[in-house]
Structures are given as structure tokens and as C-alpha cells.
Structure prediction request, 315 residues.
Amino acid sequence: MTALIQTVDLHRTFTVNAGIFKARQTLHAVNGINLSVDRGDVMGIVGESGCGKSTLARMLLGLTPPSQGKILIDGQEVGKMDRRELARRVQPVFQDPYSSLNPRRNIASIVAFPLDVHGIGSPQDRRNKAIEMLERVGLPARYADNTPGQLSGGQRQRVAIARALVMNPELVICDEPTSALDVSVQAQILNLLMDLRRDFNLTYVFISHNLAVVEHIATQLAVMYLGRVVELGPTANIFKQPRHPYTQALLASVLTPEPGLGIPDMGLGLSFPDPLHPPSGCTFHPRCKQKMEQCSKMNPQLKKDGSGEVACHLY
Prediction:
């Protein structure tokens, strides 16, 4: 397989207001990420809230420029691509179907909007294409003239998926596409995404905090902590034998239906990491049970370990 999208030493910093009478501070949202996603793969990205997942997604979409580093699609730098060409090749499916659709437009016009922007076909051709795509994602043609307010959450997300695919993109960036939906609807949307991946030869970058969802759909997995990737490799391998202590804690946090077990203890303590004041050395070491003396002094880099990569002094 050949890499469809790559990130090279990707950084994104923001200057934030720390409060009245205080100097503005620098927040490192994404801090030196190197990823490569092959055609047809599903790259899952997981981590706690605030680890930089959504910022990374916005950069991959070209919505937020990197402070340093490059994003390449087929070797071409995203920042130098024409906006329309980028939109033809990369499309998003956002988290909240209630806010990602225009409430004043009907469903067919929402799905056809990318075709309108690119001037593809006649108005009737665009409407026919939109209805065809709606039926492909499981919404009959009778919904074409409805507004988003007349649909359920799962139906709205199907509309968002249809809109993303109407231009036949190569890459779809899914930013928490099922987190706002009921559990039963989540399964339907995930199965739909997997079917569409097969039928349209799609590549996904799938961002989620739900490990069960990622295990179900992702072929490759990147675990993020405070803007860095701390573990990377095939999803099955990481779930079977997680190496980084943070990955182990994440997997230990998964709730099980077995009675009597109660809420799992991840062993991470009650404090959350502060991205404005990251610790020295390995940023995870204040919460790590396996930390060593060097962990507070040296920041480990990703190194190959078996079939994957891990950033930890234990390896």
C-alpha cells in the first residue's frame, strides 16, 4: 500500500489568555506528530479530552494551519493545494449532527451543496445525485425535501455522511462521529461507515475517545497524550498487548457488564494534565506507576517495538 496522507513533525501552538494582569501563555496542542495513513486503512486516534485530537483533525482538513511541519497528500503539501482540490479529496464528518447541518435548507440541497460549490452538473443532476447518495446511506428519497429538524440524530448523521461522500473523496476525517448518538444508533452508523469504506475504497482518519468503537473500525491506532503520539501500531496488536503505561490505563478504564466489578481504577489519580504547564521529560511520568528516574529528565521518542512504535523508557 502507498501512503495517502502523511504528517511530518507536525506542531500547532496557540497563544491563550491566562487571566487578567497575567502574560499570555503558549499552549502546545499538537507537538511533533509523524503519522502515515495508507490507502484503504482506518487510522484510529484516541486519547483523553484535550490531548489534541480535534486540533489534529482540523489541520488534516486544512481548516487550521500548522505552526510547524507539513501535511502531505500523495506527496503534495496541503498548505500549497488549491482549496477546491483539497475539498474534492478530503471531507469531514463532524461530531454533532445537530449543528453541522443548515436547519433552513432541505436535505437534498444540503447533500448537493458541495456539487453546487464546484459547479458540477445542472441543478436537476445535482438533486438526483444527492437523492442517490441519500439512498446509499439508508435514507429513502421521501426524506429529500425534509429539513434537519424533522430527522432523528442518526438520520442527521447519515445526511452528513452523504454530504461528505457526494464528491467521491479519497479521505474522510471522522471526528467523534458517533459520540452524540444512542448506543444502538452508533452501531448502525459504524456498520454503514465500514460498508461505505469497502464500496467506495475510502480511507478514514477516525478520532474517538470510545475504545470499543475504535477497536471495531480501525486497522491502525495512534494513542495521543498531551499533543504527542505515545503508541502507534496495528489496532489488534495494541488491544492485545498494550505497551505504553498510558495505553494500558486507557484499556483498563473500559467498563464491563460483569456485575460486582464496579468502576475500574485506571491508576491515573484524580489530577488531569495541564497542557499550559507540561511536566519535564516524559509528560506522562507524574501519573505513571512504572516511572523511573530518567522519566522526569528525558522525553522518550517513538521507537519501533515489535510490529508497532512506542514512546517509553521501559522499551
Q: What stands out?
A: The mean pLDDT is 89.
